[in-house]
Structure formats: structure tokens, C-alpha cells
Amino acid sequence: MTHILLLLGCAVVIYLACEWFVNAIEWLGVTLQVGHVAVGSILAAVGTALPESLVTLVAIVSGADQGKDLGVGAALGGPLVVGTVAYAVTGLMLLRHNPGPITGVDTRRLSKDQTWFLVVFAATFLLGLVTFSGKSWFGWVLFAAYGLYFWKEMGDDGDAASHEGLEPLKLQPRSERPSSWAVWVQTLGALAVIFVATQIFVDQLEWAGPALGLPATVVALLLSPLATELPETLNAIIWVRQGKTQLALANIAGAMMIQSTVPGGIGLLMTPWRYDAPLTIAAVATMVSVLYVLWLMRTHRATAGRLALTGLCYVGFAVGVFIVT
User: With a threshold of 0.70, does the pTM exceed it?
Assistant: First the structure.
């Protein structure tokens, strides 16, 4: 019972801490005057993707074989959940407000972001199917790929982030324009809470696998991402309600990009990076979902209902995992 309570408690803490972090990051975008879309694809994505990256790192550096399996599973679980569940939730939220075609979105830019992700993710997938000397060096290639993506997104022309429509900074709820020091304090404070809670969370997940009779990678793919990817889902709900569909979708695309490079790079550098059956199913489900979204965007057929169908890819993954295990 203690393990279960700690697991649930840490998931809640991570979620709440990331909500504070994202709130601060949006104000940080105003402070730094970065591009409006980059607030979602870069600044917010870094915060909301952080828990999954930390789960991967902490699990891998534990040194145990089970921990390494858990870390590799977490590295794939993030893109899987964001690329299926988060998109589906966004579609369902849009369905409530506008069941027709999705408007007010730069589909060209989103298509480019998803193409970046597919290229990187397909490469890590292929690397997971083979073994050869020097494979670990591709981890640095993934880090470089994200660095290039970061530079591209931050350098794209566009309107600078504005404080209009933003919720007050949680640390200064009565201030219309919070102090820069308050924005930084809230950002770093939330990061510290996320880091501590994630370490405890990983310990409980390593216990949960044997207790449930499931392999560590399956637990990491099914349980960890659903908890740590809650901020992406929360952002989608909030931004769609505010009429900021572009930010909601940019956050999802940006989070997928960082999760396919940073956790993946860590995994390549510190583990054999070999896919078993559940990991292969997860990777295929992710690529099918993103290819479907890319098709919707490029053919201008994106509607709320069609976007919500991405959730079927996660259902298919879950069914496939239970069949093979």
C-alpha cells in the first residue's frame, strides 16, 4: 500500500510542479521576447517533457538491468503517449468547440516539426533493431539534432510572446506583470520539485513491475508516460479553451521532438539500446499516429474528429503489448 500511495502521490506532485513550471515558462517567453509559437514548441515543451527525460536518466544511472530497461521504455513512452493520447485529447477538446476543420493553425510549420520528429524517431527505431560497434555515439547525434531544431524554432520569424490572455504568475497572482525574479524563482523551484519527485517515482515504478507481473519496459511504457505526460494534456485543454490551438499543437510537436532526442540520446549513450517486442510495438504505434497527423496536415483534412482518432493507436499498442506479454 505504501508503494502505491507513493506512486500516486509522486505522479500528482510531478503534475502540479509541471503546471507551475509551464505557467512560469509562458511568462518567461514574454520576458525573453521569443517568438509566439516557440513558447509552445520550445519553452513549454522543455518543461512538460522534463519529467520523462528525468525518468529515463534516473532509471538508467541506477545501474541495474531492470533500471536500464525501465529507462529505455520511458524514452519511448513519452513520444508514444504525446503522439497518440495528447493529440486525441486535443481533438476531443476541439470537437466540443468546433467539430469542423481545424482553423487558425499554421499547418505548414506543424508539418515541418512532425517531419523532423519522424526522421529522428525512425533513426532511433532502426538503431534499436541492430547491434554494432560505436552505436552509442549516435546519442550525440540526437543531441545535435535537438540543438539544430532549437536554433531553428527560436530563430523563426513571428510575433513575440505577449502577456495578453496569460494567467497570472502563480507566485504573484495579483500582479498584472510579474517581476523577472519571480518568474525565474518559480521556474527553478518547480524544476527542483520535479527532479526530486521523479527520482522517488522511478523507485516506485521499479517495484510496480514485479508486483504486477509485468516486465519493467511494459510498466514504463504504460504507466510512467501517462503520469509524466499530463502537462501536455493540460496545456492542450487550457490552450484550446483559450482559442490557442496553434500553441496546443506546437507544444505537442515540440515535446515529441525533445523526447525523441534527449531521452533517446541518453539511452543510446548508456544502454545497449535494443528493442524487444513491446518497445517495437510502441515505436510502430507512434510512427503510425504521427504519419496520420502529418497526412491530415499536409492534405488540409485536419478536423477535430479525425485528430481524436489518434487515440486508437495507443489502444492498439496496449492490446498488442498484452498479447505479446
Answer: yes
